[in-house]
Amino acid sequence: MTKDTHSPRTRSTTYKGIRVFDTTLRDGEQSPGATLNSREKLLIARQLSRLGVDVIEAGFPASSLDDLKAVQQISQQVGAVDRNAVPGGHGSAPPAIAAMARANRQDIDLAWQGVQAAKSPCIHIVLPASDIHLKHKLGKSHAEVLEIARQTVGMAYALCGNVEFSPEDATRSDPGFLLDVLEIAAEMGAETLNIPDTVGYATPAEYGVLIKKVSDQFLARPEVVISCHCHDDLGLATANTLAGLENGCRQIEVTINGIGERAGNACLEEVIMALRTRKSLFQLETAIDPLEILPSSALVRELTGLVVPPNKAIVGANAFSHESGIHQDGILKHRQTYEIMDVAALGLRESRLVLGKHSGRNALRARLRALGYSLNDAELAETFARFKSLADKHKTVSDLQLHALCADLVRPCEEPAQ
Ligand code: KIV
Ligand code: ZN
Q1: Nearest residue to 199 (alpha-carbon basis) of 130, 253, 149
Q2: Contact of 374 with 412, CB cutoff 8 Å
Q3: Who surrounds ion ligand 2 at CB < 5 A?
Q4: Does the CB atom of residue 46 touch ligand 1 within 6 A?
Q5: Which residue is closest in CA terms to ligand 1's atom 3?
Q6: Mean pLDDT to the nearest integer, 247-272
Q7: 394 Cα: distance to centroid of ligand 2 (angstroms)
């Protein structure tokens, strides 16, 4: 990441710019069953560049030789190439490329080998901070951990100059100790201080209070960026991320489709669309191109094999579909009755009215008209009755089934609505 917290792409001056740190290729790839090979990681990294993320966390080089190679390839072929040169990309400077390292010399050296070819390389150091982790995982005291932080952040800074520090399990850590370890990391050169809710334990109010405390601590050092990294174990990752932003975070760590360890990470698409949809509330901007959200989601789904539930916000198949008669009637009269987002911003032509057993006469009439049928009231009443019994049997009724239903009532309109 560059020193400038604004992305190279155009942003207005009215709102503050925040950084989008995408960890689909590191935390996301830790989803059970989501392993990606280096070719697949490269394809996703190119798409993330087109999407407009500021930082791509490309992997964890110490985890395997393959991951090291994938991070190197991404650094060379995405992180060192202007976005204009990536087919479909816009803007100039490439995204920063980050690699994760545990707090030891070997991991840090490997992370540096991974990212050094990038124009803006970043080493991301993670060090356990909660007493549970210190006692059962690391077997170290607070004083020992402070010393490890001092040495390893200094080590990474000497190599890279751009270091992110994550005290793992921050939300279950002793708050005083957390501030001490962050102070040392910042003093040794870490410019980004990430506050991971590693096990998705915090509530939005708690996470907001914690972020506020950390932000206040670094108020006099505006070069230090506070970052949020939230997991979804209680389904709160997006809410916690937004609470983090409301309390001083200037970087969000997210994944496409919310993939990640266990229940996953905060979803890029949800946070971005919340910021866009509630723009006047948050007054924050990113460089994300919303038109690239659905292609990114589809690519990640395809390559990881992790299915997206139909009711998933923004990227699920039903995210912009309406079935009930009351809602369809409202949508037909005025879209904003039941829609909060402009679907065109996501590259969709329109939301879908799904015809099923909850649909009403008005929606059926509109759909039939779009298909070229003009029915008088009696014909519509009869067709509606037949449609309802078909919907009871099949749950939803397709255009093909509607054609069959109307076969004996053929009366094409002069000008079909669509
Ligand atoms: O969830 C977590 O604690 C992490 C860190 C490595 C940032 O993914
Ligand atoms: Zn994580």
Answers
A1: 130
A2: yes
A3: 27
A4: no
A5: 198
A6: 97
A7: 42
Ligand 1 in contact with 7 (CB < 6 A)? Answer: no
- Residue type for 41, please? K
| 83 pLDDT higher than 90 | no
CA of 312 to the centre of ligand 2 (A): 21
- Angle subtended at Cα 319 by Cα 314 and Cα 325, rounded to the nearest 5 degrees: 150
Helices 105-115 and 142-160, interaxial angle, to 10°? 30
Residue with tokens 């793992």: 168
State pTM to two decimals: 0.90
Q: What are the sequence ranges of the domains in the chain?
A: 11-304, 321-406
Query: pLDDT tens, 145-191?
Result: 999 999 999 999 999 999 999 999 999 999 999 999 999 999 999 99
Distances (CA, A) of 249 to 17, 207, 269, 345, 396: 11, 11, 18, 26, 44
Nearest to 200 by CA among 261, 126, 277, 117: 261
Residues 289 and 258: their CA atoms lie apart, in Å, by 18
Residues pairing with 340 in the sheet: none
Check: CB of residue 254 under 8 Å from CB of residue 12.
no
Residues 128 and 137 sit within 8 Å (Cβ to Cβ): yes
**H-helix or E-strand containing 240?**
helix 237-246
Q: How far apart are CA 173 and CA 357, in angstroms?
A: 51
Chain mean position to CA 344: 19
Degrees, nearest 5: CA angle 196-158-25: 40
Higher pLDDT, residue 83 or 346: 346
Domain covering 11-304 assigned CATH 3.20.20.70 in the classification: yes
Question: Smallest Cα–Cα separation from 104: which of 87, 128, 134, 76?
Answer: 128
Q: What angle do CA 100, 106, 107 make, to 5 degrees?
A: 10
Q: How confident is the model at residue 303 (pLDDT cuts 50, 70, 90)?
A: very high
Distance between Cα 21 and ligand 1 center (Å): 13
CB neighbour list of residue 35: distance below 8 Å, 6 or more residues apart: 29
Sign of dihedral through CA atoms 411, 412, 413, 418? positive
Q: Which ligand does the CA of 167 lie closest to?
A: 1
Query: What pLDDT, on the 0 to 100 scale, is given for residue 410?
Result: 56
Distance between Cα 266 and ligand 2 center (Å)? 9
Nearest in space to 374 (alpha carbons), one of 414, 418, 336, 337: 414
Using one digit for the tens of pLDDT, what is the confidence trace for 358-370? 999 999 998 898 8
The closest-lying atom of ligand 1 relative to the alpha carbon of residue 27 is 8
The residue with tokens 């920063």 is 96
